[in-house]
Amino acid sequence: MVNLLPFMGHQGSPGQQGMSQIGLGMAIAASMVVLTMLQQFLFNHFSGYLERCLRKLVSSMDPYVHIRFSEDSTDSSGPKNYEAYAAIETYLSSKCSAQAPRLKANSVRDINAPVLCVDDGEGVSDEFDGVTVWWHLGKEKDQGDVYRGSRNNRYYALTFRKRNRKMVVGEYLRHVMEEGKAVAASNRQLKLYSNSSSEHGAYWDYIMDFDHPANFETLAMEKEKKEDIIDDLIRYLLHGPPGTGKSTMIAAMANLLSYDVYDLELTAVRSNAALKRLLNRTPCNSMLVIEDVDCSSKITNQREKYDKDDGKTVKNILEKVTLSGLLNCVDGLFSANEGGRLMVFTTNNVEALDSALLRRGRMDKHVEMTYCGFEAFRILARNYLGIEHHELFGKIEVLLNESSITPADVAESLIARRGKGEDCGEECLKKLIEALEKKGEGENGWM
Ligand SMILES: Nc1ncnc2c1ncn2[C@@H]1O[C@H](COP(=O)(O)OP(=O)(O)OP(=O)(O)O)[C@@H](O)[C@H]1O
Ligand SMILES: [Mg+2]
Asked: What is this model's ipTM?
């Protein structure tokens, strides 16, 4: 306790003085104790309030709004937090490569498509609908817990003017998320799976990364037909002669949607139950492909043949996948493109398919892949020769109308001379004309 006596005046008799000094000192000391307690009480009960008032005052003077998007996915909002953070990072990668002086490459999510992002502590600005906003990459120490320990959490802080709050929180953030996810999807490495089976069941095996360059721009086909397909990707039957681009179309679809490809070899599936299990294991955002589906009807026919020959073989074949098993799967699992799944069948021989399989509603769209028309040829000429117009195009158009040549055969003529000097275009077109004339003679019975 602080000694207060030296600061008191000298009044009354020494005895009285002594007594009254002691009384006064005690009173003052008591009041100090009360004051301290009061201070403590006020501090405990009102400091939060005062602090809040102060913050309010400061923030009312701050003309900006700040929003923080944390990388941390361990709190209650779980992976959603990280999804938003990742979408922002991808969205900003195109902005920051032009603006930020210090960048870093993030290849954690996909080694083939590293995302450039601003380095810690750096920032970039962005403009949307005439409004400027600022992004900043920050780092905060997370105390963690006994299991994960402490670590540095990154976050993107978005700053914008208060008057733009409604637009930024609404339209702008929606734009950032959508754009970020779309860019990430287009950068994603697609994968190819195929089915195999063992005595334990049917499985999807990872075959390789799916790196097919096909896209709808380079796919040689009439524009209208392409647009119709793109508008409504659900369940397809692609039919047409070999070399008309059925497999190329599948690759273009997978690339357009960024879907992994699950190539189902029906003859390797042991039973309807195995087929069902396999399809149940096909994840969202995937494309199930059954090439040459006419082979499945061969299985059904074979069953009858073996029926008469040998009872043992019958059992084995009967356990195989049947058409009705396949139809059940088509109807059930892949209804209405649920969960972003696309199913595509191909055949060279549409007449051989069972009418039950062909029925609309089972395969929403039948796309006929045809021989090469002039419009398709022009796309191939652009793909392979980089030529948009040429005086030989007129002759080629006439010849294409008179003969049936597949896009694969046209492509073969056009690439034959590639690499033999830059100006090989005319030579290639002449070679194609030769091939077309030969075909025409053959088709018209001149050969
Ligand atoms: N419509 C097309 N657009 C662009 N390229 C095509 C087209 N059709 C064929 N091609 C070219 O021909 C090659 C063979 O075509 P693709 O494998 O797609 O034919 P397909 O119809 O699947 O044949 P198959 O019935 O034998 O499986 C492709 O790799 C591609 O280079
Ligand atoms: Mg094919």
From this structure: 0.99
